């Protein structure tokens, strides 16, 4: 059986700018691939090609075994797409929006109404079904937009920054909806500007920079690629920080950092460093309220792979 999504050597140019420079993408059925990258990296361009909205200048791509160029109409019947901004008709009600999409997908009016009612209930929009979409909050519009992409029960769903602009609570709601889709067997390609979103949802992550793939692995695998782990120490007495810093300099692989006023962190080469540091703290008679060893965060992996720093971030996150 072919993968749900397969792309080989995709190239896309806009004038003298190469948006995609021969990328390969594979997503197995029922899995979530997170696609990360800085602004202008090529994430949305890749989604638009896979959704048949753009034609590639080179390479091939298939969805459920169907060629996105030569079998575009058939591909569109297999996919759902939610873009960065809600694309609902503000002058229609929530129900009318979904029924219209259903009819465009060749559902009968009755079938479209039944499916719309199911989705409105699933996305907690039943009470607002008769209201014009222009009266919806941003979170409600996003949920309605996601509902619209699911009317035809697509096997593959593209979510291009689906939680942009949502507050944390509404973002969590969308995450829960995505997890339900995956349990139902839907394949999802997710681009996101929130690194914790990819960490929470994706089975695998592809990092794109300047139109090329620079890394691909599971979230945990990517964290290991950066190398080493991070040891964090929070002394009980803040006046002990200078002594803790001196100690960490001896056992870390780089200069210790101070992410909080009472916390020090340092990269270490192996898990055995924690045992060594615990013994050294005891020998120095330094008590601690917190001591932990962790893999790098996905944020740290992203900065390491792309060469970006936190000051380069967009207001909503690093991977827009």
Mean pLDDT reading: 88
Let me know the largest β-sheet.
6 strands, mixed
- Parts with pLDDT < 50 across at least 5 consecutive residues: 313-320
Which class best fits the helix and strand makeup? alpha/beta
Care to describe what's here?
Residues 5-235 form the ABC transporter domain. It is found in: Cell membrane. Belongs to the ABC transporter superfamily. Drug exporter-1 (DrugE1) (TC 3.A.1.105) family. By secondary structure, the protein is an alpha/beta fold. The protein folds into two domains: 5-218, P-loop containing nucleotide triphosphate hydrolases (Rossmann fold), CATH 3.40.50.300; 229-294, YebC, transcriptional regulation domain (Alpha-Beta Plaits, 2-Layer Sandwich), CATH 3.30.70. The chain has helices at 43-50, 72-76, 94-104, 109-122, 138-149, 168-183, 195-201, 219-226, 241-251, 272-283, 298-306; strands spanning 5-14, 17-27, 32-36, 58-63, 66-67, 79-82, 156-160, 187-191, 204-209, 212-217, 229-235, 257-260, 263-268, 288-294. Strands 6-7-8-3-9-10 form a six-stranded mixed beta sheet, sandwiched between helices. The protein has a four-stranded antiparallel beta sheet with strand order 2-1-4-5. The two termini are 33 Å apart. The model is unreliable at 313-320 (pLDDT under 50).
What's the gist of this structure?
By secondary structure, the protein is of the alpha/beta class. The chain has helices at residues 43-50, 72-76, 94-104, 109-122, 138-149, 168-183, 195-201, 219-226, 241-251, 272-283, 298-306; strands spanning 5-14, 17-27, 32-36, 58-63, 66-67, 79-82, 156-160, 187-191, 204-209, 212-217, 229-235, 257-260, 263-268, 288-294. It folds into two domains: 5-218, P-loop containing nucleotide triphosphate hydrolases (Rossmann fold, 3-Layer(aba) Sandwich); 229-294, YebC, transcriptional regulation domain (Alpha-Beta Plaits, 2-Layer Sandwich).
